[in-house]
Amino acid sequence: MELYSDTLGSGPDLVILHGLFGSGDNWRSIAKSLSEHYRVHLLDLPNHGRSPWVKQQSYPVFAEAVSDWMSAQGIENTALLGHSMGGKVAMQMALNNSQPNINKLIIVDIAPRAYPPHHQDIFRALANTDLSQYKNRSEIDEALKDGIETTGIRQFILKSLYRNDAGQLAWRF
Description:
The protein has about 170 residues and is of the alpha/beta class. It has six helices and seven strands. It starts with a strand and ends with a strand.
């Protein structure tokens, strides 16, 4: 699978995996700082950002997609940073003990344990919002207010809103 990626800087490889509702671009400002010392790869995981969609969404499927991408890029040794959902993917890759080789593992904002379902209010608000009924981002922001009360969370979610090739509003996740 050809994952969407953006690469900054030069040096040893560092692959960054974003969290749920996000994309590699969420880590751009940090990647710019790190790019002085590393070749930083900002990946969009499957079903997120500009990467392709897969029917089966699971940590093993995502981990295999990232491993395949790294192999296709010729990345044989890398530091791997995973945030939240991306951290779970990174841990799955480390558990798989497969090539390409991970020489450093950095996990941010998640632990290696099972979590009870959360983000249900966000999922419900997104499912109840028919994007075809709105003309712009501010209308969608207003529609999401009942289900997602926190402005900062809505703004983060709205970062993934875009117009597809047909000019329709759509989510990148």
